[in-house]
Amino acid sequence: MSTKTVTKEKKDKVSPEQREHYHHLLHQMILIRRYEEKAAELYQASKIRGFLHLYIGEEAIATGVMQALTPEDSVVATYREHGHALARGVSADVIMAEMYGKVTGCARGRGGSMHLFDKEHRFFGGNAIVCSHLPLAVGIALADKMQNKPNVTVCFLGEGAVAEGEFHESLNLGALWQTPTLFVVENNLYCMGTALRYHSSNPNLTEKAASYNVKAVQIDGNDVLAVEQAAHEACDYLRSGKGPYFIEAITYRFRPHSMFDAELYREKAEVEEHKKRDPIILFTNYLKENNLIEDGEIQAIEADVAAVVQHSVDFAENSPWEEVEDLTRFVYTERSLS
Amino acid sequence: MTEFKMPSLGADMDAGTLVEWKVKSGDPVKRGDIIAAVETAKGVIEIECFENGILDEIFYQPGQEVPVGNVLATISSEAEFRQKASAQKAAEPVKVPEAVVVEPAKPAAQVVQEAMKAAIAQPAVSGDRIRISPLARRIAEDLGVDLTTVHGTGPGGAIQKSDIEGAAQAKPVLAPEPVRVPEPVSARPPEVPPQAPPVEKVAPLPVEASTEPVPEVKKPTDFQSAMRAAIAAAMSKSNREIPHYYMETNIDMTKALAWLEEENLKRPIRERLLPVVVLLKAVAKSLTEVPELNGFWIDGQHQVSEAINIGFAINLRQGGLITPAIHDTDMKTLDELRDAMNDLITRTRSNKLRSSELTDSTIVVTSLGDRGVEKVFGVIYPPQVALVGLGKITEQPWAENGTLSVRKVMTATLAGDHRATDGHKGGLFLEALNRNLQEVEKL
Amino acid sequence: MTLPSQNVIAEPQQLVKMTYREGMRQAIREAMLRDERCFLMGADVGRYGGCFAVSKGLFDEFGPEKIRDMPLSESAIAGIGIGASMNGMRPIVEIMTVNFSLLALDQILNTAGTLLHMSGGLFNVPVVIRMATGSGRQLGAQHAHSLEGWYAHIPGIKVLAPGTVEDMRGMLWPALEDPDPVLIFEQQVMYNMTEMVSATPVPVDIDHAKVRRPGKDVTLITYGSCLPKSMTAAETLAQEEIDTEVIDLRTLRPLDNDTIFASVAKTHRVLIVEEGWRSGSLAAEISARIMENLFYELDRPVDRLCASEVPMPYSKHMEEAAVPQPETIAAAVRKLVL
Asked: Do the Cβ atoms of C118 and A147 come within 8 Å?
């Protein structure tokens, strides 16, 4: 792997602001982790239904990328997007309520786990047709470009999406029109249960992207600092109007593809091996080794996260269901846009 | 444990033949379940049960004729049933009692049953449906055109609108159904239309939609005479025992019809209201104000019924009359009432009336307005104590506050049982009916 | 941007002769001039002038930013249009033909059709997608079908089918005003058809069907290229004293029940004419609605004249035989009234 691993670099002098920022990153990753562990529990208790795809093991990517975004930037995500929504700042309460299917959910319970939306945070879903959101992301970026806005649009995708025609159509058009789109491939090695080597003639994804004249880099997706650094570089590049940017973040999914997956395609030992590179453990160790965090501070983070998670569950539990009379609302717009 | 008895489904029913059990011993039953079918003079009728529990002992098997009131089966609570079942293990199996075969009082009764079986169970006598467009059928019903006399010119001989219109011009209406017109108390002689009145599309009652056309039935069949015999028995009993009094009033329907027209403009076609719905609702509301007319005279006692179940007279095309009950007419909204009537008509057509609907009516409303009849003086259906007759809505000169104008007017009549009520009550009722029809928006 | 009120356009209009093609070209021009958010995107819309020459000349007038040539990537064409529309632009997306649009069906159905509802009313998709449809130019089995009835199956989108030059000219404006996705199906056989129309743009009422010819004996319901054929048939029938009422649906979704039902209640006989295949056709839907709502108004069974259930043949006489023609329409009407 030719990825750069930032957390191996020794830190000598760190400002208090930087220290606080590191704690924020850790807090974000732990929040996503505990939140999704709770989601898995609630799924088994039948509180959450439908498909539930967990991001556990991949938290560093969403956490790192979001650090480079402004509130005006746009985020387009896949169906494994709880982490992205949380890291983007969408409230834990409305995400949990959405997974419960309650009317207080971020999409009134119409979307569910795979379709989280938030207009205020410019979070354009939660898209569950693999790769169909890439044209969307290019279009959103094109609109910013045509309106002379300095915004970028980040599009998260899995490595399975590169086999879809829309991947190639979108990279080609994004590059052709120089749209400010940041494609972040979260390469967790398995497209559901099919390893990359079994579905791609060229498993080197950066080469594919580069063939469309898209600037492409590969990074360690489990190293939150490496992700953050790459995202900043990418956004600087995008905001200078040079066209789309492609980051391949190598990572690993610790959990099954979805809740109903017997994991026949990989060995337990392989999973255990990857868990040694758990992004939260890696980063915690790094902070400890460099005296950037104390055990008490970690406990405080855990306590805070536990409260946020519990609050979201209480919020979802106590929220009402949408009235059935509203079923046919929002098929067509109820207000005029102009 | 309660007894499930052969119900009395009509004043003229002595016995019924069990056709089938829809449940078996040991099955749970609940109030409202259909648990048996019984063949009566009016055809096969499904019998509902009014208890919750377990169907326990069964005393009759299909094919047996059972007098009204005989216990068909018992219904036990679950505990009772279990207790008995274990006790019976030791004891002898329960013997099915011998069938009680009722000797027909008169040979005519047998004839009635045979005829009913033939006619009501298979309403289309010829076995062939008439090919006719839905529009033509509707217009024929509005105009009272007898389809058996119409020659179809559409594809495959189908009757279409133009055929009906042609036939209506040649021979406008059927003769009115045979309704006995007793001596009226009112000074005016009863008006039986001597000739076919001009055809007008006034308040088409869905009554006529309820029956299949019967082609080429000219002579009275066995069935017809049987049905006549059944009606004759009930009506004779009524005339023999009930001292009728009659009264009538003219009601200005202009406001009610205007309201209806406006209301219907707001509605999709299938949700539109026919005048008859409003009329029935108005009668029901008026009965809440004068409840004494809604009930029975049984064993020398006047019993006022709490439920207002209006029996709505439906003429069968093949002859005869059925008055199925619209349960709790007063509690229904106009829309619910419309739906209930449509449902009743559909099931009358397919012979799927429930036993309770044939027996539960507490008062009968007969409306012959669409046949051009201006006034109906009805005969009370025993043991009920009143009958409301609604005539045709016609334009009439109307004097009010010293000026004369033309209004749409309907004559409403009341036949009352003088044993149960006096003319004063009848007058109150007609007054209430008039008032309610001036305020239809409140119905 | 608002539609002019009735009194603004009440002045006497100068009439000019215009083709169906020119009607859309002028509509696009006027949209560009009226609203800077508008742009045209699609394969060969710019330098080539449009597959059916609809946009000929617009590239020179508005330049490559506003008249965007695109690769043959139907899914990306539709998806980028959707994305741009969600971020402040008003794209007019051109897809060459309805047969090609199946490559973009995912975007039209899974994205455009679902986003508003799936996001609980948060995200509008005010995109307009135009494409050519129908037979008549001997284009064979992969360029000449009429699949707009399929699209009319999809909740969340609106489907327009201009059957006159006036409608072609006037439908784009209200379509762009609409906050929801609108598909416009242009009849390729009609591009050269001429009509006298107002020299200045007049927006068309896209919420209602239009009675093109009043009549009392039979109702003929149609749209698109079957409209002129039906009008011809109606004139022939008038000479035989058969008075045909011709209804132009104009909008295939949502259907204007009121106009249809009012006509059927008057004539009691109905023929539905369309170029779609008969099984599961739009005509079947209209027929069912009439049966459900107006059963007791019918003096004959509802009749349908649709395309033969074959892929579109190439040779002229066979292609003509596959779809309704004025003669077959007139014959079907006669059968209904005689």
From this structure: no
Residue B33, domain CATH: 2.40.50.100
Annotate C144-174 with b (16+ C-beta within 10 A) or e (fewer). Answer: bbbbbbbbbebebbbbbbbbbbbbbbbbbbb
Contact C118 A125 (CB under 8 A): yes
Q: Which of A79-93, B120-134, B269-283 has the largest mean confidence?
A: A79-93
ipTM of the complex, rounded to two decimals: 0.88
Number of domains in chain B: 2
For residue A323, the 8-state DSSP code is: P
Question: Does residue B228 sit in the same domain as residue B342?
Answer: yes
Q: Tell me if A134 and C119 make a contact (CB, 8 A cut-off).
A: no
CATH number of the domain to which C125 belongs: 3.40.50.970
Instruction: Give mean pLDDT, residues B405-419.
Output: 92
Q: pLDDT grade, residue B224 (50/70/90)?
A: low
Q: Find the CB nearest C111 among A117, A132, A142.
A: A132
Q: Does pLDDT of A70 surpass 60? A: yes
Are B222 and B84 in the same domain? no
Confidence of residue B198 (pLDDT cuts 50, 70, 90): very low
What is the DSSP pairing of strand B28-29 with strand B386-400? unpaired
Clarify whether residues C308 and C230 are in a common domain.
yes
Q: How many domains does chain C have?
A: 2
Is the CATH number of domain A18-314 3.40.190.10? no
pLDDT for the residue numbered B108: 44
What is the DSSP code string of C240-286?
A: TT--EEEEE--EEES--HHHHHHHHHHH--EEEEEEEESTT-HHHHH
Contact partners of B by the rule of 3+ C-beta pairs under 8 A? C
Contacts of C2 in chain A (CB under 8 A): 338
Please answer yes or no on whether B269 and C300 come within 8 Å at the CB atom. no
**pLDDT tens for residues A270-292?**
999 999 999 999 999 999 999 99
pLDDT number for residue B85: 74
Residues in C 26-65 with any Cβ partner in A closer than 8 A: 39, 65
Query: What pLDDT is attached to residue B420?
Result: 92
C262 touches chain B (CB under 8 A): no
Q: Is residue C113 in a domain?
A: yes
Give the mean model confidence (pLDDT) for residues A173-192. Answer: 96
Looking at the fold, whether B55 and B156 belong to one and the same domain comes out as: no
What pLDDT digit, counting tens, does each position of C86-130 carry? Answer: 999 999 999 999 999 999 999 999 999 999 999 999 999 999 999
Task: Based on the fold, state whether residues C221 and C270 are members of the same structural domain.
Answer: yes
Residue B238, domain extent: 134-442
Which residue of C217, C218, C296 is the best one to mutate when testing the B interface, meaning the one whose CB has the most B CBs within 10 A? C296
Report the pLDDT value the prediction gives residue B225, as an integer from 0 to 100.
63
**C338 to chain B, minimum CA–CA distance in Å?**
8
User: Which residues of chain B are within 8 Å of residue C298 when distances are taken between CB atoms?
Assistant: 133-135
Classify C138 in phi/psi space as left (phi over 0), alpha (psi -120 to 50) or beta: left
Query: H or E stretch including C93?
Result: strand C90-97
CB spacing of A139 vs C155 below 8 angstroms: no
Among candidates C250, C96, C63, C97, which has minimal Cα distance to C175?
C250
Asked whether the beta carbons of B279 and B425 are under 8 A apart, the reply is no
Q: Does B135 touch chain C (CB under 8 A)?
A: yes
Of the partner residues A110, A136, A169, the one whose CB lies closest to the CB of residue C120: A110
Which among A104, A71, A100, A106 has a CA at the least distance from the CA of A88? A71
Count the neighbouring beta carbons within 10 Å of the beta carbon of residue B231.
18
Q: What pLDDT, on the 0 to 100 scale, is given for residue B226?
A: 58
The rounded distance, in Å, linking the Cα atoms of B437 and B279 is 8
Mutation site for A-interface testing, chosen from C118, C173, C180 by largest number of A Cβ within 10 Å: C118
Q: Which residues 84-123 in chain A show a CB within 8 A of chain C?
A: 105-111, 115, 117-119
